[in-house]
Amino acid sequence: MTSSSVSAPPCIRIGSAPDSWGVWFPDDPQQVPWRRFLDEVSAAGYEWIELGPYGYLPTDPARLADETGSRGLSVSAGTVFTGLHHGPDVWDRTWEHVAGIAALTRAMGAGHLVVIPSFWRDDKTGAVLEDRVLSAEQWRHLTTQTERLAREVRDRYGLRVVAHPHADTHIDTEENVTRFLDATDPDLVSLCLDTGHYAYCGGDSVELIETYGERIGYLHLKQVDPAVLAEVVADGVPFGPAVARGVMCEPPGGVPALEPVLAAARRLEVDLFAIVEQDMYPCPPDRPFPIARRTRDYLRSCGRP
């Protein structure tokens, strides 16, 4: 057997995202400028990034390719927020939103589209936008419309949809995550397991990987400060203000421990992206870079390249 016929072993590709620089919106005076983000994410030792909120980075593919390529960066995924539990009535405006992001994601050579459910309460004010618990009909809409979206994104753009459980959404706790997985087609819908959000909502990432390993298509690496989490849960604080309190913390100071998560992911023996996200909006512009560099060094100590 020649060396060229031996397939490469599965690997976990580590990256970061605008989120780790306090970027939540396409344009916000509290956020670092996009050129500074690209400069610093590269200098911190990362080679992979996500697009972040659409419009934060340049949306012209040729320009973005120049800007990322000159810094040794490649794109792993784009991200969209959706309210698919509202059913077919929201399909047209959902697709209009998704299509542009999917097109840019594919043009940048990425293979994944991270799909995040809409919030049931406002992430800044805490105003309740809708019932926290979905009806049976809304669950059917959520699962069938997510499958429809995944099929369209795959067929038109060649991207894999990875659904992202998220605090203050309807896909959050272990019960809701497993209900969602059990009701969706594994050939269409995979999971973006965000270790921080899953811990925020009481879940065990290692257990989820070991139980639903074939559904894990993408990882977000993040940790929660248990003391701050206990406070925000007790006070009923919405996600945005909880982040401002520091609920998402710098590894390895929180939970879950990332080394066992990465070990469990390696046992799946599949290629995976593991993108660092430390929610910290808003934050001083000089804060993210040192954290990003220390986090990259920490992940190397966990045995990742």
Automatic annotation (TrEMBL):
Domain of life, source organism: Bacteria
Domain Xylose isomerase-like TIM barrel: 38-287
Keyword Isomerase: yes
A molecular function (GO) term: isomerase activity
Keywords per UniProt: Isomerase
Gene3D superfamilies: Divalent-metal-dependent TIM barrel enzymes
Pfam families: AP_endonuc_2
Keyword Cell membrane part of the UniProt annotation: no
PANTHER family: HYDROXYPYRUVATE ISOMERASE, INOSOSE DEHYDRATASE
Name listed for the protein in its UniProt record: Sugar phosphate isomerase/epimerase
